[in-house]
Amino acid sequence: MSTTTLYPGSFDPITCGHVDIVQRGLKVFDEVRIAVAINLKKQPLFSVAERVEMISALFVDEPRVRVVTFEGLLVDYARRQGISTVLRGLRAVSDFEFEFQLASMNRRLTDEVDFIFMMTGEDHYFVSSSLVREVAAHGGDISGLVPKSIQARLIERFKQS
Ligand code: COA
Predict the structure, then answer these.
(1) CATH number at residue 117
(2) Is 65 helix (H, G, I), strand (E, B) or coil?
(3) Residue 151 belongs to a domain
């Protein structure tokens, strides 16, 4: 039986840290389904459609990666899709508290979906999408923090503003 895991996030934009988790996930699962959250609370730099397009282009040669969007509760989406695991990356001890809270709340909502945690590669412990956006906005060097195609999109976006 093939196994699929859901990897959710805002991915605004996807970083090398996220890519690292996807690659680790592919070693364990047959399919990693990247789920871009439609999060009305966050004011995004890239629209959901742009993020889906950017992530899909990154994994165009990897048929075991699919990119989808979801709205509402993560566990409801997972259940509707018949997916029983959610993949999350842990960067540092500071992530643990939030992830523990999130996983515990989700467990309270359903026992049909379990959370799997993977450690991000040590090169990416400090990377977050908002930090990357901030550095890029001020013209700082973001090479190595995001894939090259994403770097180009960030530079282009901040040139326009
Ligand atoms: N490498 C680099 N950066 C990483 C990373 C990694 N491996 N993992 C996470 N990050 C970054 C993200 O880019 C994000 O940066 P930002 O805040 O600067 O944008 C930050 O760390 C937090 O990541 P995450 O916790 O995944 O937040 P998110 O906004 O990307 O995604 C959802 C959160 C979408 C998974 C969560 O809000 C959700 O499930 N929402 C749906 C509603 C729901 O079910 N809520 C839960 C109720 S219990």
Answers:
(1) 3.40.50.620
(2) strand
(3) no
For the question of residue 91 being annotated catalytic, the response is: yes
145: in domain: no
The residue whose CA has the least distance to atom 3 of ligand 1 is 128
CA of 1 to the centre of ligand 1 (A): 29
- Residue 127 corresponds to which tokens in the numbers above? 């990377």
Instruction: Enumerate the β-bridge partners of residue 90.
Output: 119
Tens-digit pLDDT profile for the chain (161 aa)?
789 999 999 999 999 999 999 999 999 999 999 999 998 787 899 999 999 999 999 999 999 999 999 999 999 999 999 999 999 999 988 889 999 999 999 999 999 999 999 999 888 889 999 999 999 999 999 999 999 999 999 999 998 76
With contact defined as beta carbons under 8 Å apart, do 8 and 70 qualify?
A: yes
Domains contained in the chain, number: 1
